[in-house]
Amino acid sequence: MLVFSVVILLFSGLVYFSIVNFSHQRFYELLKIRATTIVQIEKSKQHLDIPKNHILNSLNDEELPMEKDYVFEVPKDSNYNQITSQIHIPDTFFKNIVKKGEANFNDKEFYYIGQSFKSENKTYIAIASAKNHYVVYYLGYLKRTLTTCMILALFFSMIFSFYLSKTLFKPILKITNKVKEISSENLHLRLEPQPGNTELNELIDTFNGMLNRIETSFETQNHLIGNVSHELRTPLTSIMGEADVALSMKRSNEHYQETLQIILNEAEKLDKKIKALLMIAQTGFDGKIQKMDKVRMDQLLWDVIETATRINSKNNVYMDISMLPDNPKKLKVFGNEQLLHLAMANIINNGCKYSDFQQVKVSLGATDTHVYVIIKDNGIGIPDTEFDKIYDPFFRASNTRNYEGYGIGLPLARNIIRMHKGELIINSKENIGTTVQISFPIFVVS
Any alpha helices (H) in 285-336, and if so which ranges? Predict the structure, then answer.
């Protein structure tokens, strides 16, 4: 309402003062025509005796309202007291006429315009004056009309704004009340779209999308807590059970050694799982805490393959270099070499393990913007019904029971790749094999 009032006030003022200025200019133009006519009439009387000063009562039948016309001879001593006392206007008006040849003046009601001219070696002043009824009456009417219109416009706009706010904000209030009902216990609730309101529906879709992500995050977190508690409780239960059995009665040295070996093995498993959890938590950050530098992906992959072969001689990894670019600078990425090594090693080792040590093909290529790594195996694959859970920590597919592992490698690798602004895409068919495509933005020197 405040903005609307200011706009209405500005436009009304602009209209009013524009018309006032136009009316003044137009009336002065009419008076100038009358003054010029007076001069022409007076000059036509050259053969007649022109009185020293006189008043012309009428020039023709088309007089202006309350028009009065004057002709005065300019006093030789430049004393205009007699003239000013006669028509009651300042003597500066007459001096300006003589000095400039023409001048105008108004006293808010009467308008005057004067011109100087010479006749028979004498200087005269011709003055045309009239009352501007337009300014006095019509502009007053315009002022009252504009004021009335402003008041009415504000009144009706206030009513319309009140109605519009009730109509426009009703769905927003409805959405607000619905949002207040949503909590962690009922994240399945969603906002309903409003028919015919595109902008509001876009907001509703955005909010529902956020709820979907939050619900998924909650489910993942609950699933993670369940898996973690199970994975940590299993070795702890084994450790406490073995210790309890060993302490229940006196045993032989060999039995104690066997018990301690079991406890040590379970403790090592527990240590690996805790370290894996810490690594996942660490790689969940944005990477600013890690030392980042340029890394050559071809050298990194050769090192990963060499390490995998050294750890287990059964690992069979083939490096395909047919897609390598001519420019080796396109193989550089910006990242942490140890973390990238860990991510690639996890994926390649998974390929070797779940394909029963058949050949795993690693291909490396690059474009002008990205470096691509493709890892393909012919292993057991991932069941379609379980594919959406492969990134859950400690989740292991139903067909991996005969293979050792903790379900940590793939979630850890994805976190590391995301940290490096990369993308991980997995395509897998059960009993056919798995293809993993990884892409990183190339390192650009700024």
Answer: 297-311
pLDDT at 279: 66
Alpha-helical regions (H) of 113-197: 133, 139-168, 170-181
Same domain, 119 and 246: no
The domain of 253 spans 198-282
Kindly report whether the global pTM for this prediction surpasses the value 0.90.
no
Positive or negative, the Cα torsion across 50, 54, 57, 59?
positive
Is the distance from CB of 197 to CB of 174 less than 8 angstroms? no
Whole-number Å distance between alpha carbons of 287 and 316? 32
Is 220 within the bounds of a domain?
A: yes
Query: Does residue 165 lie in a domain region?
Result: no
Secondary structure class of 310 (helix, strand, coil): helix
pLDDT in tens, 168-205: 777 888 888 888 888 777 777 888 887 877 888 888 88
Spatial distance between the Cα atoms of 101 and 95, rounded to a whole number of angstroms: 10
Residue 77 lies in a domain: yes
The per-residue DSSP string of 381-427 comes to ---GGGGGGTTSTT---GGGTTS---S-HHHHHHHHHHHTT-EEEEE
